[in-house]
Every structure is written in C-alpha cells, then in structure tokens.
Amino acid sequence: MKKILFLALVLPTLFLEFVGFGAVLKIGVSLPTQAEEHWVRDKKAMEETAVRLGVDLKVQITNNDSARQMSQVENLLSQGIQVLVIAPHDSDSAGFLVEKAKKLGVKVIAYDRMIKNADLDLFVATDNIKVGELQGEYLARKVPKGRYIILSGSPTDYNASLFKEGAMKFLQPLIAKGDIEVIVDQAVRDWQPAEAQKIVEQALTKSKNKIDAILAPNDGTAGGAIQALSSQGLAGKVVVTGLDAEIAAANRLIKGTQSMTVFKNSVVMSEQVIELAVKLAKGESLGQAVTSRQNNGKFDVPSVLYPGQVIEKADIEPILVRSGFFKNTDLIRR
Ligand code: BGC
To answer: Is the pLDDT of residue 80 over 60?
Structure first.
C-alpha cells in the first residue's frame, strides 16, 4: 500500500521534473568583487530578477582571485546549475571553466568581461572599446596639450585593454605630435584604488606636481588618483576621467575633483543577463536580444552590447537621478 502511495505521489513529480515542467531552474553566477558599487548593484539586480522569474540563483564572489573563482565555479557546477553567468577575474584562464561547464551541458554567458578563446553561448556587456573612446575623446578635447598620467585597469581583465585601446585612438595622435607628454603609463593591479594612488603619487613626485590630466579607467582608480592629487592640493586642478557612475564619483563631480564618469546601466544589463540565462536554459531562441558579435579569439560570440554615456556634473540630475539609478539622498548638496 505504502509503495503504491509512494509511486502515486512521487512518480508524477519526478516525471514533471524530468520533462522540465515545474522544475526550478538553477543558475550560477560568479562575480569578481563586492568592493565596488557596480558589482554590488549588479548582484542585487540579478537576485531580484531571479526572484521575479522564480529561479534558484546561486551567487559566488571571487574577491579578484582566479584560483578562488575556479573552485567556486566547480562548486556551482557540482550543484547542478543549468547556466553559468561569469564575470572572469582572468579573461584568459577562465576559458578552462567554460570548457568544464560545456562538457556538463551547462550553458555559459560571459558578463561584462569577455572570456578569451572560449566556447561561450553569449556575451552581455557594454561596448567596451566605446567606453575607452568616450574617455579618450573627452581628455583630448579638454586637455589637447599637456602632461598626462595614463592608468589602465587590471592586466588580467580584457576590458582594461579594450578601454585603453579606445582611449588611445584619441590620445596617441596627440602624443605622436608631441602635444601630450606621458609622464607615467601604468596598469593598476586588480583595479585597486590604493595602487592607483601610489602610481599617481610617484608620478607627481617625478613631475614635480606638473600634471594636467589623468586617464583613470574607472571610478575606483579615479578615487585613488584623486586622493593622491588631494594630498598635494591639486584635486580639482587636474582633469580626471572615470567609469561606472558610482555615487562616490558623482559626489566628486559635484565637488569638482573628478571631471567625468562613463555611465553604463549595469542594472539593466544584470536584469537582462538573468532573463537571457533563463531562455538559454529552456532552449528558447534569444531572438532580437542578440545585437552583435564580438570576437574572443576563437569565434564571433553572439553578444548583447549596451552603449556607455559620458556624465559630467550637469548630467547627474537628468540622467542618473531621474532614471532612478541614484536617489537624490545619495548625493551631497549641489
Ligand atoms: C568593468 C568596470 C569595472 C572594473 C573593475 C571592468 O571589467 O567593466 O566596470 O569598474 O572591471 O571592477
């Protein structure tokens, strides 16, 4: 009798799970850090989207450590996820994880940062060369002649080279002409603000405080650079770029110590990446969502690319506050 009852109750559930009805989709997410606002916003938006769609979302934070990302992703794979969303700490070595996932039939989406030479199903990001172009074009317009510090992001992150490539399209011709003198050109390990601060301190010493512009690849490194300028009474006198539209950066725009940031609406990107992960898990077509193809060294990966947008002080209210990206209370008085 018990057996019959068991079969009557359990078999239909097993069947439904097997054919995919009623089964809760499991999606694994591996993010590099929670020490930057961008990734905190993304995690929250991904989790909220997962709740809305009834998905079991498992998020791991790697703290900028490739070995940790490797073991965390292996752990996610062992939990039976159907899709892996990964923002790699190391754009080269993460290919190994993609291979592992694909062998298990797990679909893989690279988020925000490309994974090189890997068999990805999808890439969801900002147009990262364009981000660099916006930074470079801004500097070339504001400081067409002068002494520059050129910072670039983590050498492990392919975005860092794309940002720099974009910026250099505008700066290189001015360097070649001799209008721009580069005092220091250096990568910032793991995008660490403290590293950026150190590099700028050394460059200020080397140049006897004669610096006109700093290419900072994101708001975190801009914050470190501005800290160094501040100690020399130079904050607000040097043009500094950024990226991510962090609240701290917006407040520096208001104070006049940072000149611009590039806004990428990573909340929208995060919502969409989870929606598309669900479609991939269900084997549905991604339809119109795929807007371009980005080469990762192996093939042209189907991609969803968002535009970036330059933000100066006057754009904070109309673009960042009115869209709900910031609350007015996040900001210092203007
Ligand atoms: C992202 C930036 C971010 C940086 C540091 C890059 O890959 O595109 O938005 O500021 O990593 O986390």
So the answer is: yes
